[in-house]
Amino acid sequence: MKYSLHRAPRLRQTAQSQSIDNAQAEEAADADFNAKMQLSFLESAIQDWKAQRATDNDKTEKASIDAPEADAAPKSSWRTPLSKIKPSTLAKSALALAVALVLGWAPAVRLLATTSAEAIVNARVITLRAPIEGDVTMAAAATDIGSTFHNNEEILTIRNRRADYSHLDSLRRERDQLGTAISALEAKKQLLEQNLVELSEQQENFRVGRITQLDQRIREIDADLAATEAQHDMALQTLTRASALRKTDAVSQAYLDKALQDERVTKNTIQSLTERRKGSMVELEAARKFIFIGDSYNDTPQSAQRKMEVALELADVRARLEGSKAELAVLMTRIDAETRRNEELSSASIRSTVNGRVWEILTAPGEHVNAGQDLMRLLDCGSAMVTASVSETTYQKLRIGQNATFQPRGGGKELNGRIVGLNGLAAVSSNSAIQQSMLAREPYHVTLSFPGLSEGAECQIGRSGLVKFDTSSPGAVASAD
Asked: Architecture of 167-322 per CATH?
């Protein structure tokens, strides 16, 4: 009994210190057991073991008093034969020892492994801003924080009922005026083309008539020339007879002179008619080439001159018409551009640029917003990463590109990844959902990429866990700040 009284405080003190150590290890390793429950369990097991030992010692002392002194060997009061200890006592002692080993093993492994003090799943946050001012309308009435969206899916719409359409109206008035001018030019063009056709027909009729007239005149000259040649032959014969008779004084000298005159006149008449025929042939050939030669007009008749004037006026109308059409085409392009600009200023559809979910809503349906105002923040689930804080000793062992594993707290598949950023003591500000400054258990910060976090439709942002670093894998040496 003396042993029990002296040993019990030491055992209780040992159990209490072990419970405190186990509680600290439990907090560091985030074990599933509660420290108080473990301490109570150990104290209960030790008390049962002490009570059993005290009972066994009493029985041993009574047996030694009743036995003969020669047969009883001197024994120590604090030793009990193993054969006399109950199996239940041995089982409880073994259970207490196993619990102590289990509770002490996790802190030992944690102490030897290169792990993070705390780690959390993080992702980029994309801010959607209003491109124009106007009233907000949600594409889906049930849109709220946590709602999921796919890439290029419409989230909300902004409509500006006070958009300025004055410039577009001015362009449309210019278009209408230009359209009226083009219509007038088209009508004038048709009239001039009709007049030109009539003048062309008139000119052609004049040319054909002139050619016919010249042909008839040439035939008339040919007839006169034939008659004159006949007269010349007759005059030549008369002159020959008169010359012969004059030699015999059968005729007078006056008769001979008259015969000579007739012969010369007919000869000159033939020559005159021949030249007239040549002139008529020149006019005929020119008329066939659309060149008109005459005594009463120049090289172009009045119908041809009028035709030229109409042709020039028609060319001017055509040029003005083409210019107006080109100007109308440019004006229509400007109207289309101004229409698109007004549509962009009067209505804007805000679409998701990533696959993710709503992180924060900064506006409400029906609210009037200004251009550039923040409307909503989206989580980019495809850019999920892990932000961890580590001690200085652990940080000095890490390198960019080093392999690591992430075990989510509360169960889940262990993920493989690598280190992509070593920020040291600097808590770098970024567009992440959770800033590095929020991890304050250790001063050094590390960013890791785990491709498995981006798989699936759900975002795991904010889920904590434990990162284990593989310091044996290669990588660029990191320098502490």
From this structure: Orthogonal Bundle (1.10)
